[in-house]
Amino acid sequence: MTEIRTCSTCREGKPATGQHFHPGKRPGTLRMQCKVCTRRVQREWYYRKQALKPRRADEVPEGHKRCSSCALMLPLDNFYLLRGVNRRVSACRSCTRRKLKENYDALPKEEHQARNRKAYERRKQKQGLSLDAPDGLLHIAVTRDEVKTAALKAIGHVPFRISGVYAIRNLKTGQVYVGSAHDVRSRWGTHFWRLNQGNHHSPRLQRAWNRDGAECFQFDLLEAISDRSILILVEQAWIDFLHAFAVHGGYNVSATAGSTAGRPSSEKQKQVARQRALASARPYRVTWPDGRTETVPNLRVFCEQQGLHQSAMRKLAAGKQTAPHRGFRCARVSDVSG
């Protein structure tokens, strides 16, 4: 008959066998404490020892995470959340965006155009619209009543991601608007949307659009340019050649390409620009992701140098945003000193 032994810790009676008790120091003996209590006591002792141990310099504190790319220790808000598995990604937001941009730039232009075309086809098939277009290319935007106007049909003859100089021509009067863009087709979509909304930056073009209608305007690609460094120079040549700034010849608000010189500003616009200039010159106290602080005399210049969004930093300074922007925090010097 098997002997029943009482555990010295839990006071439970268990068979005196090696299944329930560890061997003792002397041969043929068993310990007085059962295996379950022995494991629990050892675990509690280990946790107490770890709590008393001094923290290492490279140990990550609670609420923080070390980026697998830049090796910076940042708060958890600087890491994207994977909602499906409810955990954070290994790289911080800045490193993740940089890696995605590198992968995007590594693809050839033909691959980008093919992806845009497939996405467009899926979107239009979901809406039940026709994909027929001349030269095998696709038209873009559709009006609210899903009727394609003459102006929208003119946009579809240029693929995406084509940089160059373009013109918006009034077929009734012959007047033109000349512009340039890194993606001409996307810029045409922006022009069309703003003209339909009635808030285009060229008042003369907006008035002509409202008077003659969208069917009287045609979008033309004047010249495709692969070297983007000379884009403004070529645009200036086309503005001078087509008299796009002439009194009775064009819709451009400025005679200089890439500038708003000569465009009259209202008093409200001047006041807003003056307030922005004063706000930009106000000193700010910026906290870097590694914890060091710096007094910045001009927030706009600092954001351009560090690749940050000025609007997000101003929201942090005004208290409208609590989460840090790419690891940076910002506050007005007057608020910190006060």
From TrEMBL:
Pfam families: GIY-YIG
Keyword terms: Plasmid
Record InterPro entries: GIY-YIG_endonuc, GIY-YIG_endonuc_sf, Intron_endoG1, WH-like_DNA-bd_sf
Presence of keyword Electron transport: no
Signal peptide: none
Keyword Transit peptide carried by entry: no
Residues covered by the GIY-YIG domain: 161-253
NCBIfam families in the cross-refs: grpIintron_endo (TIGR01453)
Protein name: GIY-YIG domain-containing protein
